[in-house]
Write a structure and sequence with these properties.
With 273 residues, the protein is α/β, with parallel strands linked by helices. The protein folds into two domains: 164 residues, Rossmann fold (3-Layer(aba) Sandwich); 92 residues, ProC C-terminal domain-like (ProC C-terminal domain-like fold, Orthogonal Bundle). It is built from eleven helices and eight strands. The chain has an eight-stranded mixed beta sheet with strand order 3-2-1-4-5-6-7-8, sandwiched between helices. The radius of gyration is 21 Å and the shape is elongated. The structure holds NADP nicotinamide-adenine-dinucleotide phosphate. NADP nicotinamide-adenine-dinucleotide phosphate binds next to helix 1 and helix 3.
Amino acid sequence: MKTILLVGAGHMGGALLRGWIKNAGPGFRFVVLDPNAAKAQSAIASETSESIEVSHCIAKEEIPRDLEVAAIVVATKPALVQDAIGSLTQFFQPTTALISIAAGVSVASLQEVSPAGTAVVRVMPNIGAMVGHSVSAGFASSNTSQEQRGLVTRLFEAVGQLTWLENEGQIHMATALSGSGPAYYFAVCEAMIAVSEQAGLPPLIAKALAIGTVTAAGELLDATPEPEHLREMVTSPNGTTAAGLEALLCSKTLNDLVRRALIAASERSIELS
Ligand SMILES: NC(=O)c1ccc[n+]([C@@H]2O[C@H](COP(=O)([O-])OP(=O)(O)OC[C@H]3O[C@@H](n4cnc5c(N)ncnc54)[C@H](OP(=O)(O)O)[C@@H]3O)[C@@H](O)[C@H]2O)c1
């Protein structure tokens, strides 16, 4: 039985926990530390599993003292991560891996507050974890064992897919691309709704058409992971899509916008580190 101590069961921690209960398979015990009882309980109650034990503590004093912890997963807001880890040092054993999903909190600053020699893994999941479709990017400190990497892979594949990065610097662009990425698609969807409403479509129709379009595009990309091929497939010469794409892509407008967005998010991630 592997015990995972989850610290913080908010949006992302709660999504991970739901995925783990549903998909991680047998052999896990999850102990959840979160002062916000309502958030933690809703994550725990939404999925049930006979083979997995889950318990919730609202303060660290409630965590069983004799716990043998395979991994501590920190999912608090970035500013609270160091204090949260610093207050839990008694639960680290030599084989305990520290996994942080906090944006902009470096391996070095995680090592500063954890016992010497702790294997530290940063993972940047995304909110797709709420529906089992997170794309997560991970980076492990050099003292992380194959078994610990395997555990991280198992946990994050329970909520989607995990890709290992070659160096920690790559996590800034991964954060900008996939960590923050769902919000960009939501913003594009909002813009398409607003513009088509201004052009006369009734609001409910605009919303249904815009959301249905994004969902279908996502499913098509999942089935055929070739965006260029799909774009060409739906574009007839001189047709309406060709006209729309010409406006979108002229003078590299879209590329410039995307570059500005990804670089701004990546620079913010560097600033936070
Ligand atoms: N949301 C995303 O799309 C996303 C994507 C990738 C990574 N992340 C990372 O995920 C982390 C969490 O983000 P979130 O959006 O899930 O935040 P959130 O909804 O605020 O969840 C954080 C949870 O941690 C609890 N908490 C605070 N201090 C704690 C402590 N010392 N011990 C245990 N629990 C504590 C909070 O309780 P209270 O509510 O009472 O404060 C809250 O329930 C962040 O570091 C973020 O960078 C988020």
